[in-house]
């Protein structure tokens, strides 16, 4: 934990504000290079952390997970509000396959790679694979916006919808495998004795997530459409939408469902049934989501201990490369070939599977669960995310142009 009592609230406030200002200024410059803004926030956190010039110790993984979950909920709700329903309908089948079967295939192949390069047992390798198998909505949305790509609607929607839908699958696999590896968990925890025991947990997460998200989205859309909203209420509507997203996220998680899936579905329905209120809130929500991403990646950067990461940098880089060039393409080919996607589209979908905050947040779960060498999961996930943002992000737009997928503006 960062101990700030002696420093005083004014100094702490000034330090946090300065970090955000520096990160934003740096992000504006890196944007010209095609790099993700998120890299700068993470780098500033690392420079502030224990191995950086300021040397501030921070090891509160629980706080990082809490902030991460709230930030991702807001980002997914905002993503749903920005997506038109007709785009989602045409992409639902391929995105759903990638978000379920694709995640399972990716995790399985990564488990084999982890056994080879990290000498992990199969179960632990599968846990690591589950943590890094999910593409990250915040990274995908941010990179697509920065790259200004103009893709065919079905292709773009498939990538964006998949990034929102695959979080529940990855989270269920991660939590279920941790429960399997720690049989003496908390009273009342679901018992997982085999992979088949994960199916009821997955069904509960997805089923309740869809149900609560649909009901909550319809109710929120009906109520919001009745409010006396005018054009000068954009700030209030952004605050209202953020509060609705957090409320739905908390209720769904409390009921045992996937709050991430629920908020995305709810956002889609609010946009579809209360479009004026939804679009009015988007400029303000954009600022909230940037703040959420900034705080999240600053925290994740603070959590990283670079000298520990360097101990396994070689195997971690091999695993990251295996994920990008073997596991992800294999999963995409298996899911999209039967649906008539051409090889160019498959190549782009495979390469656009950016990793961001979600794998790092999920990789903190083994640390919180007290698994032996749990720090390895976090450090490897960090390398995977770093390589993805450094290599895949800047090359998305050139690849789209090379493959002939970036359409000219009408």
Explain the overall architecture:
The chain is about 75% helix and about 0% strand. With about 400 residues, the chain is mostly helical. It has a single domain (about 60-400), classed as Na+/H+ antiporter like fold (Up-down Bundle), CATH 1.20.1530. Helix 1 (about 10-30) runs antiparallel to helix 2, helix 2 packs parallel to helix 11 and helix 5 packs antiparallel against helix 7. The longest helix has about 35 residues, at about 85-115.
Q: Can you name the CATH architecture?
A: Up-down Bundle
CATH topology: Na+/H+ antiporter like fold
Tell me the Rg in angstroms. 20 Å
Could you name the CATH class?
Answer: Mainly Alpha
Please state the average pLDDT score: 82
Can you tell me the number of structural domains?
1
Which sheet architecture does the biggest sheet show? none
Order of helices and strands: HHHHHHHHHHHHHHHHH
Task: State the low-pLDDT regions, or none.
Answer: 1-7, 184-190
Strand content: under 5%
Mass-distribution shape:
globular
Helix percentage range: over 70%
Topology:
Elements: H1 9-30, H2 37-48, H3 61-81, H4 85-117, H5 122-132, H6 137-147, H7 153-181, H8 198-226, H9 234-255, H10 259-273, H11 275-303, H12 306-309, H13 313-336, H14 343-351, H15 357-363, H16 365-368, H17 374-402
Helix pairs in contact: 1-2, 2-11, 3-9, 3-10, 3-11, 3-15, 4-5, 4-7, 4-13, 5-7, 7-8, 7-10, 8-9, 8-10, 9-10, 9-11, 10-11, 13-14, 13-17, 15-17
Give a quick set of tags describing it:
mainly alpha, Na+/H+ antiporter like fold, antiport
Please provide a brief summary of the model.
The protein has 410 residues and is mainly α. Helices cover 76% and strands 0% of the residues.
